[in-house]
Design brief:
20% strand
Length: 250
Amino acid sequence: MAASLKTAYFTADDGVKLAWHEMGEGFPIVLLHGLFSSAATNWIKPGHADFLAKSGFRVIMPDLRGHGESGYQTGAWPKTILTQDCRQLVEQLGLKNWVLGGYSLGARISAHFYWENGHPEMLVLAGMGLEGLTNSYLNLDLFRRAIEQDDFPQASIERFIQGFFRQSGCNKEAMIALLESQSPLSPDQVSQISAKTLVLSGKQDQFNGSPLKLKDMLPNAAIAWVKGDHMSAVGQRSLAVDIVDFMKKS
């Protein structure tokens, strides 16, 4: 039987209503989803949240603003808005010792959170390579083209991203504002992330740069590999198994 799922809402400091989902009891792990995705798409439907909950963890999964069941504001987004939202949720829940993890965009937010809002017990950076943190503009033009333009070749990466974006139900203006709010960490900042960190990647995933280079730059990191590329790795059941193994060993 699947673990029970709870959905709740909180109001961010700027008045935007944001959703978060929770399964299980025990040591808390906050999981952040990727761009054009949601907690349901990345964590709940693939069974990751249920596996983590049954393994003895409290799984907390916000929908980032502009995604899933969360609202968004119009106009430009402040550079730190996504980490601010995460910080506010953590404070409202009263978390003291906890793990923060994310996939792709969620991994970038997790790394920034380490610097902006205090240090979680451990980090899980999934679907992320070194260049995805130190050059946050790595795929900015690609995503903007995919959501603003048309007439891409059938087999192009832009056409694939465009289809994923349109299925997501995300607002175009909100996603452009999100993309423009992204900023890099310096290599020096990355090298000073001292929390125990799991770098978790698909074997064919170089979309956000090199996961191995990221692992090597972090002073206290391990790496694990699952099948697939950037889009398919997040759906692999072994992703949750690797997260549980990492947390229980650390």
